[in-house]
Amino acid sequence: MDDQDYQVSFPVRGSVLDAAELAALTELVGSGQTLSAGSRRTVFERRFAEHVGTRHALSVTSGTVALELAIHLADLRPGDEVVTTPQTFSATIHPLVAHGVRVRFCDVDPASLNIDPTSVEAAVNDRTAAVILVHYGGYPAEMDRIVAAAHRYGAVVIEDCAHALGATWHGRRPGALGDIGCFSFHNSKNITTLGEGGMLTFDRDEWVERIDRIRSNQPDVELGPPRSPGPPPTPLLPWMRFSEEIYGCDYAHVRRPGTNATMSEAAAAVGIVQLDRLAVMTARRRYIANRLDECIGRYAQVRLHHPPAGVGHAYHLYTFFVEAGRATREHLVRELDRRGVEVQLRYFPLHLTPEWRARGHRPGECPVAERLWFDQQINLPCHPAITDAQLDYLVEAVSAALDMTLSPVDSSPPASLVPLTDHTVTPA
Q1: Residue 224 pLDDT
Q2: Residue 203 belongs to domain with CATH number
Q3: Reduced to 3 DSSP states, what percent helix, strand and coil does the chain have, rounded to the nearest 5?
Q4: Domain count, the chain
């Protein structure tokens, strides 16, 4: 079935934009103010830090750039080890390909698809420089044990929060649970900054200047000792202000060159509006997920991706597991596709991709992740632009497809749920 024929598909956009975002852009364009590195970026960063609960939030041009810079802050050296998950998008760990480090893939927890804290505790050692994890689908990882294990050896904990905006972990938010949080505002994510954008969140004051320098086309450096006395330099004229720092100091060591990763004012202006409506869009995602849980939970040999008490799922992805084997899962996927429901499987286990196989990783390294992805896992559409009519159809189609493949535990029709506050979001 072609994409345009799906009655319920994965989102063209992961969030909803309407007149409020357009008004913010119109105000910016009409203001005559700078379109780069201005007041709107400052406001967006401050408000994002307040939302997450960290001292600092620094914006960049994408979530991939945020992850690249977070890995840079880990100050990796040849021979270091990095512990990470196989169940995530390649961008989470792709920068590690360029580092002379040993990557240790830990298996996933079968309930959450997040990195298994028991595996982390067994993997970390005095060579571990970083632990990199993802909050899969918006389901926060078991952070207390992971952070404790990493910090026991002085390792930095990097959270990939690309799915997790809107989630909570026992009253706290992803991005403030480890040492560095990395967020994506890609078109598909829970909020967007005009298609691309990213954010780093952390508490350490010493990292602010390093990130600000890199994203502003300056190298990340260690300063050298003061210059030896000598003839006075040629005086700088007042309009040479951009040359003052370069002319007046020496670098003892350049850690890495800078780049232009400046979030535009237009992106930041939209980000402010999107952050304002995050709660409404998250409520809509949870409402859709609750409807699907009520439907799918009636069937034998199906397991839901449902967090325990105290953990708030953001439902960037809606996931469930068919425990009747690969053939049954494939039959169910085909039935859903035939009924116009798009199914995607996210994500192919990273240790089996070519770049990591080239570094010695093989099947059997993460058996839980492999079994779940190849045999059980299904992702269904779950985003705030799904209309009530589409949601009703989705529930009916999923029920019919499950009836064709599995036996219900309860033969009664799924009960209606009480809608969450502000669950209806009108697409643009």
Answers
A1: 75
A2: 3.40.640.10
A3: 40, 15, 45
A4: 2
Q: DSSP secondary-structure letter at 162? A: T
Same domain, 293 and 266: no
The rounded radius of gyration (Å) of the Cα atoms in the chain is: 24
Residue written as token pair 């009924």: 339
Distance (Å, whole) CA 3 – CA 408: 30
How far apart CA 279 and CA 425 sit, in angstroms, is 11
The CA-to-CA distance between both ends of the chain, in Å, stands at 26
Question: What's the per-residue H, E or C state across 175-215?
Answer: CCCCCEEEEECCCCCCCCCCCCCEEEEECCCHHHHHHHHHH
Task: Please say if the pLDDT value at position 422 is more than 50.
Answer: no
pTM over 0.90: yes
* Residue ranges making up the domain that contains 201: 19-215+260-274
At residue 225, the pLDDT reads 72
pLDDT higher than threshold 60 for residue 141: yes
Sign of the CA dihedral 146, 150, 152, 154?
negative
Whether residue 182 contacts residue 157, with contact meaning beta carbons closer than 8 Å, is answered with no
φ/ψ of residue 377, rounded to 5 = -75, 140
Residue 365 Cα distances to 17, 85, 105, angstroms: 42, 11, 8
Instruction: Give yes or no for residue 166 having a pLDDT over 80.
Output: yes
Pairing, β 377-380 against β 318-322 = antiparallel
Mean pLDDT value across the chain: 91
- d(C-alpha 409, C-alpha 425), whole Å: 33
Residue 65: inside a domain: yes
Residue 245 covered by a domain: no
pLDDT tens for residues 113-128? 999 999 999 999 999 9
Measured distance CA(57)–CA(48) in Å, rounded: 7
What does residue 13 show for φ and ψ, rounded to 5 degrees? -130, 140
Q: What is the pLDDT of residue 247?
A: 59
In the sheet where 180-184 sits, what is the strand order?
56-60, 198-202, 180-184, 156-160, 128-134, 81-84, 102-105
pLDDT surpassing 90 at residue 361: yes
- pLDDT at residue 15 in the model: 97
Residues 162 and 191 in one domain: yes
pLDDT digits (tens, 9 = 90+) for 378-399: 999 999 999 999 999 999 999 9
Residues 265 and 337 in one domain: no
